[in-house]
Design brief:
The chain has 847 residues and is an alpha+beta fold. Helices cover 37% and strands 13% of the residues. It contains 26 helices and 20 strands.
Length: 847
């Protein structure tokens, strides 16, 4: 008899209208008998004399009508093929299949569905993988059904394949990896520098040392540089999109189209002013706020010239036509950021300055002030006395009649503290880059209306006689008038510059992108696709290795976009490695983070047994709802597969994953006592909840609002170029007559602004193929009914949370949710439309 099947795939030539060679080659292969074959992996039903573990693939079946199956040029349309398998009544239920591609070009295999299988009905295989020519593989490609099995429950006929496929994914640790390789392996961050280009492009290796510990990245295996054997060579920028990651981790066609189109748009928006005004000496400065607003008005015409023409030729027009006007003039325009859509100047208020620490793009740093004056944790033997110089007389009259100790006891004093993080780098940054930086402390008071107000900002520099002599600090307090008002605006700008850099380097890059990659690599190396934890976590790995690889090529590298736009310059990644020394996995759980920062206390009578000390803390309020919804889903899911702690302990793949993650993926932290032992179901649930939180909601909170808040550079400048003007200086006198010019000469320059805005516009967009928290790419992601029901319950709960957030935003009684700029806090709304929306929680750290 025959078993009928349906294969859904995307031909390579359907993804690129220019790749006609693939189509012609496939046709020739078919005519020569080189087809695509599939074999079911089954075994004869056991008898007393037969060994059920004996592998017995079925006869090869071939995809029918490859040549005549019409595939649309549209990238979101699939090809569907019929396939008929020979079936013997003695066969057991198939648990896997082998696919061989005898064409020269690859294709993207989505699914195989078998109908009317005796004793089983329909069987689904979810593949979602690129299949290259068979000659590229040492062993054939194997896919398993959507059934979920713990290692010791795996049916005997497919158990060897399960182990074999994991071995393939681990590789042998040698050689330069090619696009068809499927190897997940570890490497240090040793590919950021380019020492063969000169000393200015040399950067330290991050990872594998006490000075610069770091999470591991995916290995590419490129050869070392000539100048520094421990540094890996880089690929040319024009080939940056082809940096190795396992092909299945690369952006899908829609995501890549969006990335290229908006990326090119951003490049044009940056280079146009440079090309158009190459000799204009004042073009690199804004002088007025109105000039800074001009970039959102009208548009920018593309200049004609070889540079622009080369860019046009390098990217298919199909990816650009959405952004080019039909008149052919080529007009690009920055969208108006939400921060200035309602009011062009409300961002300057103290209320908004403070509100963004609770409901802005970096709401994860502010902490409760527990001692006054604030003390430093820096080593006194190296940095001397770094105790804050903020004194009682600076803030006493701003505390609504409370004494300082009373305000601390009442939990009404808070601090945005960037002092200890930055002070070790201030001297080097100020001496060797164009930045003039302070280490900052900002003290805030919680008013009776539940809103914060800043009461003092301390700006500190290293002592001129040496670090061991401590800091030289000045304290500034609020003022709204005259030169004192301008000084206060500058003090807030210095504090914001620090916050913008810490946000981009630490809150965003390090604490989401970088720390999650080792979890992904370890999971693919040690957890089979049939493993329940693999199925749980896999949606939260989507595209992360790809965006991280792109980041190493164009953002984080020596001379890259991050160094060009954010204050630490060439010390940016080195600084993030120093901060990683204090990273703790269990502290990344939202409740633990809030408790550690003193923003919440344990309270059995409060929702989730956690009471926020600032009731109107939008990030925490919304985040806790999302956190506990994720945790409930993970608990339901894990309880289905793990009936006891012993099940966790005896899961060999789970234990191998967790061991390798600690010892290799986060190898520089392997001896930390805080790592969960992964011996109980609670430890597994808590760990998986934290992983999902980091990859989805935490990343969404610190990424997708970037353009909303920082797309208008004066609100979140990334560089300060001059120190605070001293009384009696020319700059101080200029503040009296032209304060706007002094402000703009101090913060980010025009060209850095345009580049920075173009970059965050790209990073803040949702692609058209985004998959959000509570969603799956396919409804047949598992064959088990109960987990599917629990996942639907999770989705409904997220919908309820979304309605609750929108209701709170509209009620008007929560001042921190809206602020004077009338920008609702929407970053933790679970869903979104594609584009620049300032809302939505994608499943994964994919942008």
């Amino acid at each position: 008899m025959e078993i009928k099947g349906r294969v859904v795939l995307m031909k390579k030539n359907s993804l690129d209208v220019k790749d006609l060679g693939a189509s012609i080659g496939d046709r020739l292969d078919e005519l020569l008998g080189n087809k695509v074959s599939l074999q079911l992996i089954t075994s004869p039903k056991p008898t007393p004399t037969e060994n059920k573990e004996k592998r017995k693939p079925s006869e090869a079946a071939y995809l029918e009508k490859w040549i005549t199956t019409v595939t649309s040029v549209a990238p979101d349309e699939d090809s569907i093929f019929n396939v008929n398998f020979h079936w013997e009544e003695s066969f057991d239920i198939p648990g896997a299949f082998i696919v061989r591609n005898f064409h020269h070009s690859e294709f993207y295999l989505k699914t195989l569905t078998l109908d009317d299988v005796p004793g089983a009905g329909s069987i689904h295989f979810i593949c979602n993988s690129w299949i290259y020519s068979d000659e590229k593989y040492k062993l054939p490609r194997v896919f398993f059904t959507n059934k979920t099995y713990l290692p010791d429950e795996t049916p005997a006929p497919i158990r060897p394949y399960r182990e074999e496929q994991l071995a393939i994914l681990r590789g042998d640790g040698t050689g330069e990896l090619q696009e068809w390789d499927r190897v997940y392996d570890y490497a240090y961050y040793n590919d950021l520098g380019n020492p063969d280009k000169g000393e200015d492009f040399s950067r330290p290796v991050l990872g594998g040392s006490r000075d610069y510990p770091y999470p591991r990245r995916g290995r590419t295996g490129r050869p070392p540089t000539k100048s520094e054997p421990n540094t890996e060579t880089r690929i040319p920028l024009i080939k940056g999109l082809s940096i190795y990651v396992p092909r299945d981790e690369r952006f899908g066609h829609l995501k890549m189209s969006d990335f290229l189109a908006f990326g090119l748009k951003s490049i044009f928006q940056f280079i146009v002013p440079e090309v158009a005004h190459p000799s204009d000496s004042i073009s690199n400065e804004f002088d007025r706020f109105e000039e800074a607003l001009d970039i959102y008005k009208g548009g920018i015409k593309l200049p004609k010239g070889p540079l622009v023409q080369k860019l046009y030729e390098s990217i298919p027009f199909e990816l650009l036509k959405e952004f080019l006007p039909t008149d052919g003039e080529g007009l690009f325009k920055f969208p108006t950021p939400q921060i200035i859509q309602h009011d062009k100047s409300a961002w300057r208020t103290d209320e908004e300055f403070a509100r963004e620490m609770l409901a802005g793009v970096n709401p994860v740093i502010i902490s409760r002030l527990e001692e006054f004056p604030p003390r430093s944790r820096l080593d006194r033997r190296v940095y001397g006395d770094q105790t804050s110089t903020i004194a009682a007389h600076h803030i006493q009259n701003q505390l609504d009649g409370l004494a300082i100790d009373e305000a601390i006891k009442a939990n009404r004093l808070f601090i945005l503290n960037h002092h200890d993080t930055l002070m070790p780098y201030v001297r080097r940054i100020n001496a060797t880059t164009g930045t003039k930086l302070y280490a900052t402390r900002t003290i805030l008071f919680l008013q009776a209306n539940g809103q914060l107000k800043p009461v003092a900002i301390e700006l500190s520099l290293p002592h001129p006689d040496g670090d061991q002599h401590g800091a030289v600090s000045k304290v500034y307090t609020p003022s709204n008038h005259g030169v004192e008002g301008t000084v206060w605006q500058l003090a807030k700008a210095y504090a914001t510059v620090n916050d913008a850099g810490v946000h981009q380097l630490l809150s965003h890059w390090l604490n989401t992108h970088a720390v999650i990659e080792p979890f992904i690599i370890a999971a693919y190396r040690q957890l089979s696709t049939m493993h329940p934890i693999h199925k749980l976590l896999q949606p939260h790995f989507r595209y992360t290795m790809n965006i991280n690889a792109f980041a190493r090529e164009i953002l984080l590298n020596a001379g890259g976009l991050l160094e060009a736009t954010v204050f630490p310059g060439k010390y940016a990644m080195e600084l993030s490695a120093v901060v990683y020394k204090d990273w703790c996995f269990t502290d990344q759980a939202l409740p633990a983070d809030l408790l550690k920062r003193g923003m919440a206390v344990e309270d059995p009578s409060a929702p989730y047994s956690l009471r926020l000390l600032i009731e109107d803390y939008p990030y925490a309020v919304d985040g806790l709802e999302i956190w506990f919804a994720i945790k409930a889903w993970v608990e339901d899911y894990c309880s289905f597969y793990y009936k006891s702690d012993d099940t966790v302990k005896n899961d060999t793949e789970l234990q191998s994953w967790w061991k390798e993650l600690r010892e290799k993926g986060h190898g520089d932290k392997k001896d930390e006592p805080w790592w969960p032992k992964m011996q109980t179901r609670k430890e597994m649930v808590d760990s998986c909840t934290t992983i999902i939180w980091i990859a989805s909601a935490l990343h969404a909170a610190v990424n997708f609002g970037q353009y909303s808040y920082a797309g208008y550079m004066p609100n979140r400048p990334t560089v300060s170029r001059r120190l605070m003007p001293e009384p009696g200086s020319e700059e101080y006198e200029a503040m009296k007559t032209d304060p706007e010019k002094v402000f703009f000469r101090t913060i980010t320059a025009r060209m850095q602004t345009l580049l920075g805005i173009a970059l965050i516009e790209l990073l803040s967009r949702h692609s058209t193929d985004e998959v959000y928290l509570g969603q799956r790419e396919t409804p047949e992601w598992t064959a088990d009914a109960k987990p599917k029901e629990d996942f639907e319950k999770f989705g409904k709960r997220l919908g309820e949370i979304e309605e609750k957030i929108e209701r709170m935003n509209s009620e008007g009684k929560y001042g921190n949710r809206i602020g004077p700029v009338k920008l609702p806090y929407t970053l933790l709304l679970p869903t979104s439309e594609p584009g620049l929306t300032g809302r939505g929680i994608p499943n994964s750290t994919s942008m």
